[in-house]
Inverse folding.
C-alpha cells in the first residue's frame, strides 16, 4: 500500500487513519466478546463430592472503639498534605515550563530554516 506524503500529513489522511484504527478496535472488541462470555459459567461437577465436617475454630474478639487523633497529629497531617500539594505543583510547573521552552525553541528553529 503506497501512501503519499500529502495524504499522511493532511487532515483528511489523519481522519481516515483515525477512523480505520477506531474501526479495527471496535471489531477486536466485538470478536473478543463474541468468543468469550462475560460471566464465567459454573462447571458441572463430574463426581459427587462430600464436604468435610471438620471446621476451623475462629475467635471472635471485639475491636477497640474509635477515637479521634489528637490535634497535633491532625495539624501535622494537614501540613504534610499541603507540603505534598506544593511539591506536586512545583514539579508540574517545572515540567510545563520545560515543555513550553522546548516547543518555543523547536518552533523558532523551524521558522529559521
Amino acid at each position: 500500500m503506497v501512501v503519499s506524503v500529502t495524504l499522511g500529513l493532511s487532515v483528511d489522511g489523519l481522519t481516515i487513519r483515525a477512523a480505520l484504527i477506531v474501526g479495527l478496535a471496535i471489531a477486536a472488541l466485538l470478536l473478543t466478546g463474541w468468543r468469550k462470555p462475560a460471566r464465567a459459567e459454573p462447571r458441572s461437577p463430574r463426581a459427587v463430592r462430600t464436604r468435610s465436617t471438620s471446621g476451623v475454630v475462629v475467635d471472635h474478639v471485639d475491636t477497640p472503639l474509635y477515637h479521634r487523633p489528637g490535634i497535633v497529629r491532625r495539624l501535622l497531617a494537614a501540613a504534610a498534605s499541603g507540603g505534598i500539594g506544593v511539591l506536586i505543583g512545583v514539579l508540574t510547573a517545572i515540567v510545563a515550563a520545560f515543555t513550553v521552552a522546548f516547543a518555543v525553541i523547536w518552533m523558532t528553529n523551524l521558522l529559521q530554516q
In short: Residues 1-37 form one domain. The radius of gyration is 31 Å. Residues 27 and 54 are 52 Å apart (CA to CA). The chain has a mean pLDDT of 82.
